[in-house]
Amino acid sequence: MTVAAEHFRYVQQLVMERSAIVLTEDKSYLVDARLAPLARAIGVADVNGVVDHARSRRDPALEQRIVEALTTNETSWFRDTRPFHALEHLVLPALIERKRASRVLRVWSAACSTGQELYSLAILLEEKFPQLRRGWQVELVGTDLNTEMVRRATEGLYSNLEVNRGMPANLLVRYFEKEGAHWRARETVRDRSRFVKLNLVGKWPPMPTFDVVLLRNVLIYFDTKVKTEVLCRVVKQMARGGYMLLGTAETPSGLCPDLVPMPTDGTVVYHLPVG
Amino acid sequence: MKALVVDDSRAMRSILSRILRKVGVEEINEAADGSQAVACLEAGASPDVALVDWNMPVMNGLELVNALRSRKEWRRIAIVMVTTESDQSQMVRALAAGAHEYLIKPFDEGSLIQKLAMLGFQAPSAATGPALAAQGGSH
Ligand SMILES: C[S@@+](CC[C@H](N)C(=O)[O-])C[C@H]1O[C@@H](n2cnc3c(N)ncnc32)[C@H](O)[C@@H]1O
Ligand SMILES: [Mg+2]
Question: pTM for this one?
Answer without folding.
Answer: 0.94
